[in-house]
Amino acid sequence: MGISRVLSALWFVYNFLPVSQSDVFSNPKCYYPAECLALNDSNTMCLGVKVKYTHTSLSLANDSATLEDVKEKLRAWSGLQGAPKCWDVIQPLLCAVYMPRCENSQVEMYRRDLCLSTKEPCKIVPEANGGEWPSFLDCDLPYFSSDEACTAATYTSMEFTNNHSCMYPLVKTDSKDSFYEDIDGCGIQCHNPFFSSNEHQSVHTFIAVLASACLVSTLLTIVSNHDFLTSF
């Protein structure tokens, strides 16, 4: 084959072969074997963001047997919007597990360190799950990559909405000393001069416990649905 034909072939591959297909083989450590499933027009959104790929897999999240299950589960997880610090970091993780990019019978893996970064701000999750995270979100599972070369850019580049408020009556705060129990980024409101310190403490304790209970009840819905689906 002449040099001109070789150059022409390389030019064609570079310009017309989709990057999403060629990069599967650039670093095998960034991909995990899975069965791919085509996305349809009604299932291209993950937590309000339209995904930029055409196929996903149901092989990772063991609480979802269909794409409709995935939609319901993600809707339930959206209850974490009331815990903004958690919600900011867990969204790409949820999309990476519930709607991973899948091509050539492989899914793009999420980074293990990014998975681990959700544990501290999302302490409310195991609180609602008997002290443990859902099994498929165990960061030591083989579909979480420890290879630094794996960027997980498909998920980390998704433009999520991160301007959510704390569940009322809690308010946003950056002071760790003010965080309410397991809800990072949220604290009880400041003093009102018309009430005594004891009255404030009693009311704050009541409303904070109520807000926490509401958030936990949302997560319990996720857990109960997970137990129901995995019982079959």
Please state the structural category. Answer: alpha+beta
**Computed Rg:** 22 Å
Number of strands: 11
> Which parts are unreliable, with pLDDT below 50 for 5 consecutive residues or more?
9-22
DSSP strand content: 5-15%
The major pleated sheet works out as: 3 strands, antiparallel
Mean pLDDT: 79
Spatial sequence of strands, sheet with the most strands: 1-7-6
Helicity range of the residues? 25-40%
Distance between the termini: 58 Å
Written overview of the protein:
The protein is of the alpha+beta class. Helix content is 39%, strand content 10%. It has helices spanning 3-16, 19-22, 67-77, 84-98, 112-116, 124-127, 153-156, 197-230, and strands at 31-33, 37-38, 45-46, 49-50, 55-56, 102-103, 106-108, 110-111, 144-145, 171-172, 186-187. The strands form 5 sheets. A 3-stranded antiparallel sheet has the order 1-7-6, with no helix packed on it. A two-stranded antiparallel ribbon has the order 2-5. Strand 6 and strand 7 form a beta hairpin. The chain starts with a helix and ends with a helix. 33% of the residues are buried. The model is unreliable at 9-22 (pLDDT under 50).
How are the SSEs placed, and which strands pair?
Elements: H1 3-16, H2 19-22, E1 31-33, E2 37-38, E3 45-46, E4 49-50, E5 55-56, H3 67-77, H4 84-98, E6 102-103, E7 106-108, E8 110-111, H5 112-116, H6 124-127, E9 144-145, H7 153-156, E10 171-172, E11 186-187, H8 197-230
Parallel strand pairs: 8-9
Antiparallel strand pairs: 1-7, 2-5, 3-4, 6-7, 10-11
